[in-house]
Amino acid sequence: MTNEQRRSFLRHAAWIAAATTLPRWAWSNPPSLQSHPFTLGVASGDPTPDGVVLWTRLLLTDPAQMQAPHTVRWEVAHDARFAQIVQKGEATALPQLGHSVHAEPRGLAPGRWYHYRFMLGDAVSTIGRTRTAPASGDLPDALRVAFASCQRWEHGHYAAWRHLVADQPDLVLFLGDYIYEYATPKNTTDLARTHSLRLASTLADYRDRYALHKSDPALQAAHAACPWAVTWDDHEVQNDYAANAGRGDDANFLALRGAAWQAFYENMPLRAASLNQPAPGRRWDALQVYRRLRWGRLAHIHLLDNRQYRSWQACRTPQSASAGAVRAAECADLASPARTLLGAAQEGWLDAGLAEDAHAKNTTRWSILAQQTLFSPRHYPSGVTATDSWDGYPTARARLLQAVAQHAPRNTVLLGGDIHQNYVCRVHADPQHAESPVVASEFCGTSISSRSGTTQDKVDAIARHNPHVLLARCDQRGYGLAHITPRRWTTTLRVLDDPLRADSSVTTLARFVVEDGRPAPVRD
After folding, report:
1. Does the pLDDT value for residue 57 go beyond 60?
2. For a Cys-Cys bond, which of 31, 133, 134, 494 suits 296, CB 3.0-4.6 Å?
3. Are the CB atoms for 479 and 145 separated by under 8 Å?
4. Which residues, 6 or more positions from 317, have their beta carbon under 8 angstroms from its beta carbon?
């Protein structure tokens, strides 16, 4: 057992030890279930060359069963009929963790597909399909990565997920806003659907919100189709929150944030290594979300967290409901070098990762920075600066660009979401000077379902003021699909014809290519 495996085991062991205070009958024979326990589906995530995370969460209705831990069996097989089972095991679904299961089979073969399922008593889950990453020294012919974000329930059906499954990605990168904390608006005009949940503020509220989203069959199918790697943004907790601060007094917000973070872990295919909790019953004050995934020698994915460690938005008052925008001349704090979006530790971690990529540039073809929002600047015609995005943290962006320019990985590509718009950009070493060298490419994808809140005329005006912006389109829901080979990166932007229809068709908005060694997207 490696040191990391031992730490992961000890993290989960603390929770299991706490559950042993329950009556011994709770650990006895599998229960006679009153309803199917796997209605939230299955998922897998964070593939390595020899393993993957397998996730499910039991949805129980009997009060006694809801208070008890349950032993869930899992199997991994070469085939969908499970005639060739290669691994099997058991995991404890604890009530303290929402009866979630995070199994981590190891010893699988690199670079191949598997099928998996869960069992509780006589109940059997949906069959999921997952895969391992290639061996560290392999250079695969291709990697298909779908990237997506922002799926507010009321704003649209999840037809995008149905089409994404048909595109057969190897991996999905989800870049934040998996849920939205809001209640259904009073004005339901032009909404695709509604729900009856209140504004989320407790652990039960957030668990219910994930259960709502995961009830959608298209989203369940996407989770079952391939492994995901997930990060968060603000709506998993509260709109525009920053680190330890949000709306309301500090004590209430930290309790709310802890509940939201716990629900995020319970409902995502995350490894036990992401847990930083010293013991059960303590408030969730940290969750390790930033991490790296390797895809052989083809790609190195740096998955970032721009919420947990960020500075409070510049010149935002504590009472304001959102971050808003400022004028730089009227907000001296905007340019403070002390301001950070990633936090000092994550900045140093990313700098070290980029240095590693640069040292291995003959073996690492593509360095991928998968993060939450638009990285490139948007100079508005009105002269204001949005404070919740990278524009609100210009010195932090400058430090990251300095790291990219200094280390010079072979190819750097940034992926983002959050703004509910499609942007394709050249990333310059100095974002204020278009004549500075291009050091990376950026693809910021639109939302799965969430509205953009602006007009194409306004977006066009912004694009005219920003020569590094190659494409900017709003209010078209969908996802991005990156086909990555050793010599070329091709991004296809897929958009729905009608997000208010569950059976909406999909079209290709645009396709851009980045050639190996040429850090600028070119329209195909």
Report:
1. yes
2. 134
3. no
4. none
Name the token pair of 391: 């524009």
Element (DSSP H or E) covering residue 300: strand 299-303
User: For residue 159, what is the DSSP state?
Assistant: H
The phi-psi region of residue 383 (left if phi > 0; otherwise alpha if psi is between -120 and 50; otherwise beta) is left
Mean pLDDT of all residues in 175-195: 97
Q: Rounded to whole angstroms, how far apart are CA atoms 334 and 350? A: 23
Q: What are phi and psi of 21, to 5 degrees?
A: -75, -10
SS3 category, 509: strand
Question: For residues 349 and 326, what is the distance between their CA atoms, to the nearest angstrom?
Answer: 30
List CB contacts of 234: < 8 A, sequence separation 6 or more. Answer: 176, 177, 240, 241, 307, 388
Q: Hey, is 462 helix, strand or coil? A: helix
Q: How far apart (Å, rounded) are the C-alpha atoms in residues 375 and 397? A: 8
Query: Helix (H, G, I), strand (E, B), or coil: what is residue 365?
Result: coil
Runs of H (alpha helix) within 298-428: 344-359, 394-407
Residue 81 near residue 93 (C-beta atoms within 8 A): no
State the Cα–Cα distance between residues 281 and 24, nearest whole angstrom. 21
Give every CB contact of residue 19 below 8 A, 6+ residues apart in sequence: 69, 92, 94, 95, 96
Place of tokens 């204020």: 432
Task: Please report, as a single letter, which amino acid is at residue 291.
Answer: R
SS3 category, 66: helix
pLDDT of residue 466: 96
Tokens of 488: 């070329």
Question: Do the beta carbons of residue 279 and residue 14 sit within 8 Å?
Answer: yes
CA angle 257, 262, 265 (to 5 degrees): 125
pLDDT in tens, 355-395: 999 987 677 999 999 999 999 999 999 999 999 999 999 99
Q: What is the predicted pLDDT for the residue at 255?
A: 93
| pLDDT, position 54 | 98
**Amino acid of residue 18:** A
Question: Which runs of E-coded beta strand occur in 438-477?
Answer: 438-444, 469-474
Show the 3-state SS of 323-339: CCEECHHHCHHHHCCCC
Quote the CA–CA distance of 297 and 346 in Å, as a whole number.
Answer: 23
- Give residue 283's pLDDT: 72
Closest CA to 449 of 152, 132, 86: 152
Q: Which two tokens stand for residue 523?
A: 């329209």
Q: Say if CB 42 and CB 126 are below 8 A apart.
A: yes
Element (H, E) at 220: helix 217-225
Can you give the pTM of this predicted structure? 0.94
The three-class DSSP label of residue 72 is strand
Q: How many CB atoms lie within 10 A of CB 107?
A: 9
What mean pLDDT do residues 402-417 have?
97
3 state SS of 179 = coil
* Closest CA relative to residue 512, chosen from 416, 424, 419, 427: 424
Q: For residue 338, how far is the Cα from the chain centroid?
A: 27
Residues 6+ apart with CB under 8 A from 13: none
